[in-house]
Q: What sequence folds into this?
């Protein structure tokens, strides 16, 4: 059996930085060529989210459009050109925009207007399942969306090894709950990262009420909470990274909610947000998993909230 890595080694192997290029932020900001996308996300009754994504090692910057958790498109930006790629939901669909083709930056205004029209058309058909919970979270007075798909970069130690080291005791605890079926492998990514009203960070798993994987969402959320804490406690640049993400979203008019200043020194927490309407069977299995985590003494289990949430933002806690 492989020996586990030390926490210091794990911390050195993991980082997160989604600060976008300032020129892309200006394109998305009010008055910029891609501003119609942000304007639509602010005004739509549907959970349309516009998100920045950056890979600084590869010098890649993107602006991504979601409805709920469904990726509709992503715009890859370079200083003099941009490319639009469709999400899986649009693969094979006709479009005025030539998918995956580099376009001159002078086409950015046309791209922004065309994609906003596309989002307006497709959003009603995608605003179900987990998207209901996303819509409800947008109305929460204590949460501000920072980033979708919280996934950092791994260096030196493989992603699989990091996740295995952080999840071994969590998986062992869940297995003792004896839920029918098998315990799925834990992922290294959460659905979203939020900023709490006090400036603390909240990592979130967002689920449909009818998805079988909702059973193990508490375990998955705790693995992602450990990854978040690994980064915030081990990276001295965490505060400046978070402030940069907040500043970019504020400049682009995408910052919703209380918009506190992020403070990575505050204890981060985890949230499982589930579309209202969870069946008694799935609720019972989910609660069995949560109780198994508590009884096994997993310390982060006390920093986890599991809630059902409806489209109006009404939240009902389903763990004690």
A:
């Amino acid at each position: 059996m492989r020996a586990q890595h030390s926490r210091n080694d794990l911390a050195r192997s993991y980082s997160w930085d989604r600060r976008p290029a300032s020129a892309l932020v200006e394109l998305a900001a009010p008055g910029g060529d891609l501003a119609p996308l942000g304007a639509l996300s602010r005004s739509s009754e549907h959970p349309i989210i516009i998100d920045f994504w950056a890979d600084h090692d590869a010098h890649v910057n993107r602006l991504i459009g979601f409805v709920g958790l469904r990726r509709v498109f992503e715009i890859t930006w370079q200083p003099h050109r941009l490319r639009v790629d469709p999400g899986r939901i649009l693969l094979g669909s006709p479009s005025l925009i030539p998918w995956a083709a580099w376009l001159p930056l002078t086409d950015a205004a046309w791209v922004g207007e065309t994609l906003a029209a596309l989002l307006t058309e497709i959003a009603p058909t995608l605003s179900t399942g987990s998207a209901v919970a996303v819509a409800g979270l947008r109305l929460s007075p204590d949460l501000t969306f920072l980033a979708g798909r919280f996934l950092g970069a791994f260096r030196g130690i493989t992603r699989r090894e990091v996740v295995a080291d952080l999840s071994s005791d969590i998986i062992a605890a869940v297995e003792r709950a004896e839920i029918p079926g098998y315990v799925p492998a834990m992922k290294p990514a959460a659905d979203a990262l939020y900023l709490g009203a006090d400036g603390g960070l909240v990592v979130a798993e967002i689920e449909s009420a009818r998805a079988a994987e909702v059973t193990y969402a508490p375990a998955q959320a705790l693995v992602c909470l450990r990854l978040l804490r690994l980064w915030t406690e081990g990276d001295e640049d965490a505060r400046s990274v978070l402030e940069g993400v907040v500043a970019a979203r504020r400049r682009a008019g995408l910052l919703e909610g209380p918009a506190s200043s992020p403070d990575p020194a505050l204890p981060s927490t985890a949230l499982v947000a589930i579309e209202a309407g969870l069946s008694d069977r799935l609720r019972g299995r989910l609660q069995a998993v949560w109780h198994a985590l508590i009884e096994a003494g997993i310390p982060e289990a006390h920093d986890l909230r599991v809630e059902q949430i409806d489209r109006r933002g009404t939240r009902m806690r389903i763990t004690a």
Q: What stands out?
A: Residues 22-129 form one domain. The chain has two domains: 7-16+131-317, 22-129.
